[in-house]
């Protein structure tokens, strides 16, 4: 028996070393993994466009209300998918890279517990305190009432969002990008159809307004959770999900949380930055807030585009680190960041030159569109640098090195908080200066993250 154990361990390690993520050419492998993510996540762009269109049909008050709720909704996605989700993918991929499939399976089960608990806490917080948060951002009267109704329905199902993204992250950690992408794609279609039908009262369905749009999200997430859980339980062999054979253990939780929990600070920084700016713009009136919300929505939609490449980089970097291939891990990080910098830089140039291509989809008020167009002209040129920072953030999670992007996010938040306070306190807070502060913060985040990753040392734990 003593001879059989080392032989089995050697066979497992050999299988890990033969994994294509460890030996395939970096750029083709990264793009092969990224394309399904980008196709699926592009559907989140379509969902956002559709929802903004639905809400735009409900009037300027509804648009302003969505601008108050949207940063918190994106925070849910960024924490569960990009931060904690990447912590899950990173831990699983590093375990598989080291040839420890049993530990990878234990990590998957512990990840589901983390997702369920985090989702419940998120629901409790935002259902109970949502109106207070929207009021802090400047919501008043009809705008606050609309935001509260929308947010209550949306955040009541936060556990579904957390579980969906956790399950998808488990699968991505094994190198399987296709199935999660298919599920996300289909769920997005369901969300568009159900949310639009209930929001606008299409056909025989009741017109529930903004709560109906939110309900479409809950229905889609519930179906996605069921599909992903069924596949992990019965449709694949890389990870064994068996509650009877596993016990919850703190060291396994710690392996996920030491990256994922710390990484959750990054989306909190991003959302807090957006919330501070939203509060500053809200003082200029509902039209300014609605226009800013349209422009800001595109900024947040850049994050899913960068997620497509970033989430592909996580298992590639993680497996390379687990196998001791540190130099390959760093090459993956810089290759992915170069791709996204070029992609988002081009998009930023387009909306800078022709902002009405985006703003014209939603604004039915000339003043609202003018505010949105100004945002895109000022902020669009730095979209590429923002993408640079986002992909390096994901790569850092894959390597288990979270501090460089966190420090860059802190710099961005400090610039916005300090600069915004100075502008508003001195009565100099024009919309042009506030938008310029947005651009400065995004550039600082991208360049700061790149500098930190270049200076940091990566090594196998």
Automatic annotation (TrEMBL):
Q: What is its main location?
A: membrane
Where in or outside the cell it occurs: the entry states: Cell inner membrane
Q: Does the keyword Cell membrane apply?
A: yes
Alphabetized UniProt keyword annotations: Cell membrane, Membrane, Transmembrane, Transmembrane helix, Transport
Which top-level group of life is the source organism from?
A: Bacteria
Entries under NCBIfam families matching the protein: matE
What is the protein name for this chain? MATE family efflux transporter
């Amino acid at each position: 028996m003593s001879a059989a154990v080392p032989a089995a361990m050697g066979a497992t390690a050999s299988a890990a070393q033969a994994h294509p993520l460890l030996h395939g050419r970096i750029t083709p492998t990264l793009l092969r993994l990224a394309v399904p993510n980008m196709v699926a996540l592009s559907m989140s762009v379509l969902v956002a466009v559709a929802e903004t269109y639905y809400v735009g049909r409900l009037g300027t008050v509804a648009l302003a209300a969505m601008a108050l709720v949207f940063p918190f909704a994106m925070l849910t996605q960024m924490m569960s998918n990009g931060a904690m989700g990447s912590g899950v993918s990173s831990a699983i991929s590093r375990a598989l890279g080291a040839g420890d499939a049993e530990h990878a399976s234990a990590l998957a089960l512990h990840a589901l517990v983390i997702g369920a608990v985090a989702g419940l806490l998120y629901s409790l917080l935002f259902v109970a305190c949502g109106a207070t948060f929207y009021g802090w951002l400047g919501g008043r009267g009809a705008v606050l009432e609309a935001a509260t109704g929308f947010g209550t329905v949306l955040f009541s199902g936060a556990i579904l969002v957390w579980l969906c993204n956790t399950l998808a992250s488990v699968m991505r950690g094994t190198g399987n990008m296709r199935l999660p992408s298919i599920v996300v794609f289909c769920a997005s279609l369901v969300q568009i159809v159900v949310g639009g039908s209930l929001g606008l009262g299409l056909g025989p369905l009741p017109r529930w307004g903004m709560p109906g749009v939110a309900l479409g999200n809950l229905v889609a997430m519930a179906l996605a959770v069921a599909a992903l859980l069924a596949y992990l339980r019965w449709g694949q062999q890389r990870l064994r999900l068996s509650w009877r054979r596993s016990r919850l253990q703190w060291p396994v939780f710690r392996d996920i949380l030491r990256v994922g929990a710390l990484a959750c600070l990054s989306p909190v920084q991003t959302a807090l930055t957006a919330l501070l700016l939203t509060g500053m713009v809200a003082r200029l009136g509902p039209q300014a807030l609605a226009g800013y919300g349209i422009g800001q929505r595109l900024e947040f939609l850049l994050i899913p585009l960068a997620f497509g490449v970033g989430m592909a980089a996580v298992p590639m970097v993680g497996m390379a680190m687990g196998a001791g291939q540190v130099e390959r891990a760093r090459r993956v990080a810089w290759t992915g960041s170069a791709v996204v910098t070029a992609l988002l830089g081009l998009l930023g140039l387009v909306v800078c030159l022709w902002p009405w291509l985006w703003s014209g989809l939603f604004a039915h008020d000339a003043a609202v569109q003018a505010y949105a167009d100004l945002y895109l002209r000022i902020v669009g040129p730095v979209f590429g640098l923002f993408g640079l920072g986002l992909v390096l953030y994901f790569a850092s999670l894959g390597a288990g090195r979270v501090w460089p992007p966190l420090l860059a996010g802190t710099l961005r938040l400090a610039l916005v908080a300090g600069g915004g306070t100075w502008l508003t306190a001195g009565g100099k807070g024009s919309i042009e200066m506030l938008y310029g502060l947005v651009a400065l913060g995004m550039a600082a985040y991208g360049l700061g993250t790149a500098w930190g990753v270049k200076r940091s040392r990566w090594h196998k734990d």
